[in-house]
Structures
1.
Amino acid sequence: GENVEQHPSTLSVQEGDSAVIKCTYSDSASNYFPWYKQELGKGPQLIIDIRSNVGEKKDQRIAVTLNKTAKHFSLHITETQPEDSAVYFCAASRAAGNKLTFGGGTRVLVKP
Amino acid sequence: EAQVTQNPRYLITVTGKKLTVTCSQNMNHEYMSWYRQDPGLGLRQIYYSMNVEVTDKGDVPEGYKVSRKEKRNFPLILESPSPNQTSLYFCASRYGQGNTEAFFGQGTRLTVV
């Protein structure tokens, strides 16, 4: 089955700096890669996703890149703000599959 | 408002006492899942359902049961809870298969003593 590894497990950045979270996956048939943000006391929420026919996707201060050959994808947050402090999860799935496999999560702390 | 509602939010119980965590969605989604979240392990799928009366095991199904009698509801049943089932549980629903957004409930923090 699919295995998703996520690094780092914790990340502390100064407000205004960039944050990068990296994930690797094992199943070459996976072709959908979402990122979820979990704020304290809440359930995860989708913030951005990318499909395998796209190498990069951007939405304001967040961007995701995908390298299918190397089987890794990354989340980039620029100009970090205190409200970016949360736990972030990457995930991988097949388009026709029933399962979303999550990475172990990254706790991001943005220091003012 | 589109949402997934779980109850209860917090639960402390004793070993062996049967419990049910309810989950309901108002988006007419076909796919529903249960996950448990443990530190460093991310979210692991317990069970999922593709439609009414259709359920299947996820990665960690031991000690859990589910049912899907109506499209909107997907309860998680622990027949005989044990301390290793102490965890944070999330219900999620999706409109379609793997490449669609999953909507999560607020979570249920379960402690089994």
2.
Amino acid sequence: SQQGEEDPQALSIQEGENATMNCSYKTSINNLQWYRQNSGRGLVHLILIRSNEREKHSGRLRVTLDTSKKSSSLLITASRAADTASYFCAISGGSNYKLTFGKGTLLTVNP
Amino acid sequence: DTEVTQTPKHLVMGMTNKKSLKCEQHMGHRAMYWYKQKAKKPPELMFVYSYEKLSINESVPSRFSPECPNSSLLNLHLHALQPEDSALYLCASSQLGESYEQYFGPGTRLTVT
């Protein structure tokens, strides 16, 4: 299966702390994407990292990709209560436009 | 405009009903997608349209029938659904190519009674 596997499944931190989520996958990829979903709502794209990239930043987000280990991590710095959401990694591979989502990490940021 | 809209927001239907979900985007994206998401699970791809033609059907039962009338609209026709089809149905769109993000709508919460 190409599905990504996030860990931890759930993470609870205090406001101001950093949150790190990991994603592992099994096959070769074109790119890996991270999305956020607030409860019962649509997904919001956070960041896309291509297979030939190792690190990307966007505001308080930092994503790393290690293709030799088939893993990626998402770091959210200085977390806020508004960051409370589910975070999914999604794998894109092959020549079609299919995204396969991991099981997700539920992040709770306590004020 | 980077918005994908979906109607209705909520839908309750009986197992003998016929209903349709609608999705619209005006970003000029030529790829559009339907996903199904059960509670506490990741989205699962159902269909992909590229250039208004069905390019991927993930072995979805025929009681779900997608339609792409033009480059901005995507419909999902529902008929004779089962209670286990109750879920959040998400529409998304993207540019064509291997490295583009998908833009998601807010979803339709479907309950089959």
3.
Amino acid sequence: GAGVSQSPSNKVTEKGKDVELRCDPISGHTALYWYRQSLGQGLEFLIYFQGNSAPDKSGLPSDRFSAERTGGSVSTLTIQRTQQEDSAVYLCASSQLGGTSTDTQYFGPGTRLTVL
Amino acid sequence: ILNVEQSPQSLHVQEGDSTNFTCSFPSSNFYALHWYRWETAKSPEALFVMTLNGDEKKKGRISATLNTKEGYSYLYIKGSQPEDSATYLCAFPDTGNQFYFGTGTSLTVIP
């Protein structure tokens, strides 16, 4: 079946602009994660959605970052007033159950964001 | 924030060589340890989920061991091939929500 997809694959924007990144998880997966990888850093947790529960937003680095997940499926990560330090690869992952430490996450190909 | 470390940061080996690298994680409150392979221009791909001390998992030429008491896992690749070139990531979940990833080991296999 189809894997996790993300769009766009690349995004170049100017400092101060808003951007939206989209993630389509695997159908039927209840959990969805957003991560980012800045240059030379490991994957950094941003936010986690589990079914209809309130999302775990504890990893969002500032209030310029927000995310939503509509209908328990597609998710959008929005970055307002982008800064150069927001440049990174943003990865989305979904898992079947979520909320368990052994559940495998399936990753999308990522969106490479460059803020000029 | 939990500290998950991987070493070495990068590795170049000749085709046919065997190699291994390390993931270190907190030895307290262990739930599981995940290994992923991330090839350039592709999505990270799950390799193993390890849960028990002394666990050993194998997938083809790749295997992994786990020591939860001392807080480390080794990933071994036997007879490296160019297609093994990738970044290998480990991830340590503190609960079901948050997974802490290491910075990865970048492996290049030279033909």
4.
Amino acid sequence: AQKITQTQPGMFVQEKEAVTLDCTYDTSDPSYGLFWYKQPSSGEMIFLIYQGSYDQQNATEGRYSLNFQKARKSANLVISASQLGDSAMYFCAMREGKGGTSYGKLTFGQGTILTVHP
Amino acid sequence: DTGVSQDPRHKITKRGQNVTFRCDPISEHNRLYWYRQTLGQGPEFLTYFQNEAQLEKSRLLSDRFSAERPKGSFSTLEIQRTEQGDSAMYLCASSLGRGAQYFGPGTRLLVL
């Protein structure tokens, strides 16, 4: 089974509008972390936001917020007030905790290409 | 504060040749990771170091791949007897403990 699922291969949004990128995850570990990264066409992975499994509040970082629904195992990224520079590939990733065999590594989803229209 | 750097940025080689990539992490970061990314896919974990100790290796890391981090600072990833299937972007990342992983610009490898 896929550990990280991003069901939207591509998304389009109008400049200045908000957009939600979906991510669901699968783990039996009670301790895990969820990350979102942005990869522009230049190729570099840019860290955006982090949510820990025990965090009570949804993470926010500027225009980025993470809608964390633990029971549904979803960690959707919300980008408010989209800008042309937000056009990129977005990856959701998970780091499982000490109970798993993958204490350090990130497992990535397939990504969602976001296109912001002027 | 300099980020993660990787060298070279691009490498073209012929099948059967050996290649070596270098990664310099953020200076205070004790963990260093290598990932491989093929076109249209998310990065796949290869291996990671805590200081100089290699703590985990993926099954993807065949015997032709070896990674080192001799003094707990920079790391090298060597691929011996390259194959066309090794063509990919090789990404290095570093973190301070379990903090966020920060990625370098990657080395794009093309095996002819």
